[in-house]
Each structure stands twice: as structure tokens, then as C-alpha cells.
Amino acid sequence: MKNPAIIIENLQKKFEDVTAVDGVSLQIEDGELFGLLGPNGAGKTTIINILCGLIRPTKGSCKVGGYDVQQDIVKVKDLIGVCPQETAVYSYLKGSENVDLFGNLYSMNKQILDARRAMLFETMGLTAEANRQVGKYSGGMKRRLSLIISLIHDPRIAFLDEPTVAMDPQTRHAVWDFIKDLKKKGKTIILTTHYMEEAEELCDRVGIIDHGKLIALDSPKELISRNRVKNLEDVFIKLTGRKIREEV
Amino acid sequence: MKLQRMVALTKKELKKTIRQPAALFMIFLFPVVFVFAFGASFGGLGSGQPVYQIGVVNMDQITPSQSSLLFIDALKDTNILSIQTYDDNQTAQNELSQGRIQAVVIIPATFNQSLESYKTAPNDPSKWTNTSVSLYLDKGSIIATQAIPPIIQQILTAYIGQSQQVLPSPINLKTTSLEVKQTSSLDFLAPGMFTFASIFLIMIVAGSFTEDRENGMMKRIRITPTTPTDFMLSQVLSYLVIALIQAILVFIMVYVMGFRPNVEPSVYVFAFILVLIFSLSNVGFGLITATISKSSSTATGLSFIFVLPQLFLGTFVGASLSSAAQIAGKFVPSYYVTDALTSLFLRGASVTSPVVLLDFAAVSISCVAILAVGILLYGKYYKI
Fold first, then answer.
1. Which of B7, B219, B226 sits opposite A84 (nearest CB)?
2. Given Cys at both, which of A42, A135, B44, B345 links A209, Cβ 3.0 to 4.6 Å?
3. A73 touching B, CB under 8 A?
4. pTM (2 d.p.)
């Protein structure tokens, strides 16, 4: 791997007596679309939170875009865009106002901000809703808006934490197309999901996390082939003895 | 620190206040409705000077005293006092206990003698015959205890002063009567109203921070390059703007209701600055509340830990409380704001007078300290 966008080494995070992340090491290539898979509570979001500098690891280190997250968090923040698991948007602001707020927090030039806002609203099918207060949006619309906010500043590395949760199949496929398009533009994308078909469809490689440990790491095809099963869901069953969404 | 980020966050916070009905009501409409209700109730509306029913017992009748009768006339000449004379104290006290009158003024038997001694040697107190005009108040009426003593005091002072000026001419009380007419209960309440409105910022700040924490917005902002300084300064700036609008609204309302203090424009500027500094302490208390609250609904309830003492001990409410409560008031910033505004608007103190400067220092130091504690505590338990 010549240009790793993300390097995680022996990462561990303990919350009192619970080990959320347990000795995870992996590298993600620049321009790669990487899937972190696992059931709820497996440790996926904790890894993302550490990579964004929101929480400190108990042990280990990680680099994002070549910068140590603990030492150069300011530089890391300029490189990344994060779509959090919860639909974090201001309901009393209009859709466009939410996006503008975050564009300004990234110190974007007004012309560039206007152009990217218009493009992203169009791509996500929200143009007609841009000037409505978000409180009147449906759940799926809020998720799409949350995705727009995370990408408004055109980040080099995007962390998309369960981006398609609560979306109808049609919207989900539209978001998949959007994510594929981001990859074509050379962005590094780390996608966490517990939808195995989503990972199969989108990801170059996947890492399967269970009880905080990385139990498998490869391309979806290779994992399916190596385990002689039909899909990633079966890979998870074979490796852990249970279904990935039992605990959802 | 980036201006673009601060402006964006400040605009966001202001839109939040304007677009959320609960916040809008609490911050802006509540003070306006409150001032209107109090103003209307306590005589600040329309022609509405309150008329206080006062009983007068003139003990200075052994030798017919023109002075005491003139003093009674001076009381009658004010449009805000309705005077009824009684032959004896017992009857007047009975009327007072029945609530038919709100105060009893006892003119002592030595009233004329005292006044004459003053006239004879106005600059030599050792030659005066000292006496007291007794005032009994309806203890069941906050307004009576608050409003009547200064009115009577003012008339008495003016009466004695004018007697000195016009001697040996007949005593003329016209000017004094007009001056007294300008004083209504609203005047006594108004300084506390400015303070009162700002106190509810505590609830708004606490609710806003906990809500942003609950819905993940605080986390989302932390992921951006926004620094804690950008964030906190923008929040404080937003609340200063809100406090300024509040103060302007309250001022407009009390002005409409009849509050017309005869002071220099610089006093108004100083008063607004004082209220803005005071609002910093409310942001600080709001942050402390947000630190100890797990949810926005808890924050609303817990904010009363700070709202109530500020409200009861430091605003117009405090003046009618026990002496112990009034001493306790000295431990809350609102007390010093109300005291300074009262000195400026009602007592005619200048901005540079020691009492006002002392209040200003107390407000500034305590408010900045409370804000600092709030920021430090919040930053310690919930990263900004």
C-alpha cells in the first residue's frame, strides 16, 4: 500500500470496564472505499470517533491524511467530513441554512459554498426543499441533508457512519450512487454499516468488527470466496456463529 | 479565532431564539407581557396615577397651627394621595387595620414648634426642636410599603425646604405637588424590571446547550475546525444581542407605561451596559446548569436553582422581603444591578457616584467570574 490515507495501529478504547475497541490495526488506501461492518455495539462508531478526534484512545495510535490524530487534530479536521450516525441537523434552520452554517465553519468562500450547496442539493434530490425549515423534513430527507452537511467542504476523507439508516430503498440506492461518484472523484471513504448488501455493493474492502476486534479484512469477493459462502451476511455467520442484525 | 465562524454561529443562535416559539416567548414576549401587566396593575397606564388613601391625625391642635394645616393641604394637593383627617389615632388605626386606608400620618404636637425653631435658626441644628412625623403603613400591601414612604418623605422635605425659601411669605407647595405627581409605583418597580427580564437567559442558555448536546449538534460542530474560543465567543455574543434587545423592549414598555426618569442620556447608556454585563452572569449560570443537567428538560427545571434567588433577592421583589432576605440579596449579582439602576433612575445619583461605581464593580467582577466558572465547568465535563 503506497499512500495510506488512514493508519490505525493497535487501537484500544476502554469505557470503564468495557472494551469497545480491542487492538485494531489496519490501513486504508488513499481513494479507497472501505467498509467497517459489524452489529450495533461492535465498536465501529468508537473507531470513527477516535479518528475524528472526538475521543482519545486508551492505547494505540492513528494517522489520518498523514497527520497524527492526537497531535495534529486541527490539520485532521480540515481534511475530513463526518456524517454521524444520529441525524444531527438544526430543525429550526432551513436546509440551506444548515449547510451554509457548516460551510462557514469550514471557512468556505461564498461563491464556492453557493455552488457546492446547489450541486449537492440537486444530487440528493432536495433542491425543492432547500428553503424549508428542517423540522418539516421527513426522516429520510434529514439523513440526506446530514450527508450534504458532511460533504459541503469537499473533504479528502469522508467518514459516513450508517448513512442509509432509515432510508427507503429508492433513496438508499440514490445515496449509493452518490457514494460511488465520490469514489470516482478520488475521495477516501470509510463507511460503517450493518447492511451487508450495502457493503457488498459499494466497498473495495471491508473490515468486520465484532466485540471490538477486527475479525476479518479483505475485499467482499475474497471474503465470500475464501469462506465458501454466498454473501457477506454468511461470512459473518460463519465467523461469529450468529446473524449480524440479531442484536439490532 | 475566525470571524466568519463566529458570525455564522451567532446568526444560528439568534435564529434559534426567533424561530422557536418557547424561546421567543420566554426571552422577548414574557418580559413585555410582564411589564405591561405590572405597569397596568401598579398605575403606569393611561391617566393612571395610583391614588393612595391616606389618613392624617393632626396632634398639633392645642394652639391652632397654621403650619400643620398647610402641610395637610400640601398632601391634599398631590393627585396621588386622597387625604382623610381623623380626630384621634385609634380611629385612624382601625380604618388602617380594616384596609380602608393604606397609611396613617401622625402630625406630632410639636410640629409647629419644630418648624418655627428651624425657621429661626435654619443653619444651627442645636437650636432645633426635634420631632417625628409618624407613618403607619398597611403591612398587607407591598405597594403601600414601597410607594407611600418616599412620597410622604418627599412632600415633607419639600414643605420644609420651601418654607425656608419663601419666609416670611406664605408657604407655597405647588411645585412640590407637581413633582410628586410624577412618581408612581411603576417608577419603583422599573429598575428591577430591567434586571428581571435578563434572568430568564439562564433557562434559555441551559436548554440550548443541553439540547445541542442531546441531538448531536455539539459533537458535529466539534468535528469542524471551529475552536472552543470561536464557539464560546459566538455564544456569548448571541446572548449579549438577545439581552440588549430584551433591555430595549423592557425600556420601551416601561416608557409607554409612564416611566420617565429625569436623567441624562449617558445614564441610559450606562444602564444598558450594566444590564449587558449582568447578562454574562446569566450565561455563566446557564452553562453551570447545562453542566449538571443530563437533558434539556432537566435543564429547564434545574435552572430555577439560579433563577429564583436572582429573581427574589435581587429584583423589585426583594425590596418587600425580610431584612434577612435583603442581606442574602447581597450575594446575587442582580441585587447590585437593581440597586445601581434605582440609584440612577430614582435617587438621582450620577454615573460617577461612589454607590453606583461600587455596584458596577460588584456586577462586573461577579458576572465575569460566574461566566468563567460556567465556561470552565462546561468545558471540563463536556468538551466544546
1. B219
2. A42
3. no
4. 0.74
